[in-house]
Design a protein that fits this description.
Elements lengths: L1 E5 L3 H13 L2 E5 L3 H8 L10 H10 L3 E4 L2 H6 L3 E4 L15 H13 L4 E5 L7 H12 L5 E5 L9 H6 L4 E4 L3 H10 L1 H5 L4 E4 L1 H32 L3 H9 L20 H14 L5 H24 L8 E5 L15 H10 L3 E5 L4 H7 L3 E3 L3 H5 L4 E4 L11 H7 L4 E4 L6 H6 L3 E3 L9
Parallel strand pairs: 1-2, 1-4, 2-3, 4-5, 5-6, 7-8, 9-10, 9-12, 10-11, 12-13, 13-14
The structure holds nicotinamide-adenine-dinucleotide (NAD).
């Protein structure tokens, strides 16, 4: 199959290279010339484990190429995926569909012969209808089918997720399009990944329902963590105790500083808007959004409490800035409101992240960026683990103690055991566990 991928970001690039790896001929298109030039030089515009090798292999095999020219790529394609951004619209929180609609218009002008146009971006229910309307209005003569195929990959494990998905959801009414989609995903189907066909609106809503449900699980365990702290229980044991129940499942039950990232925050809010517009308010999701928003700054108060109540004039060292490990993505990272709140309280902040420093510098002002965990800890009255990168899991506590003004560790990801940290002479605060100093 000849595939054009419109938008070469976290989703488009990973999907494009994986499709090429399945044996399809893929052209990744992006209007960002710098991104395409970097890819042509063999440089990855994002940090994603394993991506550079897979890109190199498939470029070398002649199955993958990059361009800013949408027209020839679409003209030659059997299937055109739209994988452009759908950020929150400023002011009202609806998904901003400008990029999707613009892409649809450009695609329509270039279509040649029967072409399947597939929305992979996360888009509100009904967007497929609008994409189809735009295409038919722009090119009344064109032969195409518009399909929804939401993406469920997670940054940091994106290639694995794409190649071993729990399911592939395809919303499609056209028999020819169904054949094309089956052919594109055939290698995964052979691996027994369930290929679920449904109607387009249902496929669109499945994506939002999935993200909202996962965000709810995280928020639920975060509130249980707060209660556990108050009553002297341990949230990790609670998560295990409930997660072993197959009806609940153990994933997404890690208490922490609240969810962030490029998807959950914007998708939960966009789903609320869809609910309101359709007079079907989603009260549970409303609570999730409100609780999660409040939690991020509450984490700064937790740090202040670990420092005896006041942070003014003190230095706080922050380890991990990206919204999760193994990505450089800083979108809606919990580190941002945490650091801002600490600064508002009068703290000086030092920070280190293994992959997100470049992005973080654009988001955060007045932070001293350091080159590793130890230089970050120098002179700090507290060390705060915000993102659980592997390299923070075995810190040299003796070394840290020498470097820091005070041996105080705030572990917002519960990666250490309270006993272990106490043995090293550190005061320790984590989330929802016994043995917290505060
Ligand atoms: N990031 C994730 O983990 C993830 C997971 C699942 C779904 N999604 C969804 O996938 C979509 C894309 O997300 P992302 O994180 O990859 O975004 P991104 O911002 O990393 O990438 C989008 C790319 O599209 C390009 N683009 C925009 N308009 C274009 C056009 N007309 N022609 C060519 N290129 C164009 C931009 O230059 C950008 O490089 C979003 O809807 C998102 O919600 C993201």
């Amino acid at each position: 199959m000849r595939v054009a991928m419109i938008g070469t970001g976290y989703v488009g690039l990973v999907s494009g290279v994986c499709f090429a790896d399945f044996g399809h001929e893929v052209t990744c298109v992006d209007k960002d010339g710098a991104k395409i030039a970097a890819l042509d030089r063999g440089e990855m515009p994002i940090y994603e484990p394993g991506l550079d090798d897979l890109v190199e292999t498939n470029v070398r095999a002649g199955r993958l190429n990059f361009t800013t020219a949408l027209k020839p790529a679409v003209k030659a394609a059997d299937a055109v995926f739209i994988a452009v951004g759908t950020p929150s619209r400023r002011g009202d929180g609806h998904a901003d569909l400008t990029f999707v609609h613009d892409a649809a218009r450009e695609i329509a002008r270039a279509i040649d012969g029967f072409t399947v146009v597939i929305t992979k971006s996360t888009v509100p229910v009904g967007t497929g209808d609008e994409v189809e309307r735009i295409i038919r209005e722009t090119r009344p003569d064109c032969d195409c089918a518009v399909v929804s195929n939401p993406e469920f990959l997670r940054e940091g494990a994106a290639i694995r997720d794409f190649k071993h998905p729990d399911r592939i959801v395809v919303g499609c009414a056209d028999a020819r399009a169904r054949e094309v989609m089956s052919e594109i995903y055939r290698p995964l189907y052979l691996n027994r990944a369930p290929l679920m066909f449904t109607d387009r609106r249902t496929a669109e809503l499945i994506k939002y329902a999935a993200n909202a449900f996962l965000a709810t699980k995280i928020t639920f365990i975060n509130e249980i963590a707060d209660l556990a702290e108050k009553v002297g229980a341990d949230v990790q044991e609670i998560a295990r105790g409930i997660g072993l129940d197959n009806r609940i499942g153990g994933k997404f039950l890690h208490a922490g500083p609240g969810f962030g990232g490029s998807c959950f925050p914007k998708d939960t809010v966009a789903l609320l808007k869809t609910g309101q517009d359709n007079e079907a308010p989603l009260r549970v999701v409303e609570a999730v959004v409100a609780v999660n928003d409040a939690r991020k700054r509450a984490m700064a108060r937790k740090v202040a409490a670990a420092l005896g109540g006041a942070v003014r004039g003190k230095t706080v060292a922050v380890l991990g800035l990206t919204f999760k490990p193994n990505t450089d993505d800083m979108r809606e990272a919990p580190s941002i409101p945490l650091i801002t709140a600490l600064q508002d309280m009068g703290a000086a902040v030092r920070a280190y992240d293994p992959a997100g420093m470049e992005q973080a510098k654009k988001e955060l002002g007045k932070v001293t960026f350091c080159h590793d965990a130890y230089s970050c800890a120098e002179g700090a009255s507290a060390l705060v683990i915000v993102t659980e990168w592997e390299q923070f899991r075995a810190l040299d506590f003796a070394r840290l103690k020498d470097l820091m003004a005070k041996p105080v560790l705030v572990d917002l990801r519960n990666i250490y055991s309270p006993e272990e940290v106490a043995r090293h002479g550190f005061a320790y605060t984590s989330v929802g566990r016994r043995g917290n100093n505060v």
